[in-house]
Amino acid sequence: MAPMENITYQKWLSQFRKGYLELCVLVALRQRKSSYGFELLQTFENAGLEINEGTLYPLLNRMQKNGWLTSRWETPVDSGHPRRFYQLSKEGKTLMSAMLTAYQDHEHTLTQLKELK
Amino acid sequence: MAPMENITYQKWLSQFRKGYLELCVLVALRQRKSSYGFELLQTFENAGLEINEGTLYPLLNRMQKNGWLTSRWETPVDSGHPRRFYQLSKEGKTLMSAMLTAYQDHEHTLTQLKELK
DNA sequence: AATAATACTTTGTAATGCAAGGTATTATAT
DNA sequence: ATATAATACCTTGCATTACAAAGTATTATT
Question: Do A31 and B102 touch (CB under 8 A)?
């Protein structure tokens, strides 16, 4: 059985991404200062994370609605399709720190479990 | 703002546990060979992971239904409340390996994102 | 003129963590 | 002897999110 082709594994993977994707967006925006959906999709893909458009765009909207991000429309200098650029808000930065801590806690828990006797 | 008290953070944390809890159960059962719900709750708590009863018991049922676990009822030797003991199935072991790989992939992706320029 | 690429949006479905409440048995304290 | 706590498991309903699929609009390429 090749796990990657297993439906049950794919479903689990979808669930496993919940919450994780928000953290990825926050970290990417911390590094980039500012970015937009399409660029983030490519950034994630380069980092080994392929996610669906229909996942990212609603995610960005939710995160803004929650006050973690701010956004503004911007048209490329020469011409080109307008882009919605997102930035971290103060709350977004605070939350990102908490999330990174939670991430480390999870790592720590898993390590503990692996060492169970 | 203390993140732990923030509702928006708590909600995120619930989402973040999705998928992760399955991996924890699989790893704990790999180490323990055999265990039951109530004991797993304590094991997780000792490992720094507090989860709700109403989360774990349905989770164990689902995992068995999916064929990842097998179970049998057992009553303590002296007397005591009967317990449903769970064990990893062959499929469960295979899937656990795939999940651990996915976990590492996520770690790797996050590291990449943290190093973005 | 047609196609591809860029860029974002919307809708419906499946899945899961959690709170809250419930059942039953055994052990402990009064 | 009685009440309480601890052990052990189960069920229901809710809120949330990843995804597939389909859609809109603009710009670039063939």
Answer: no
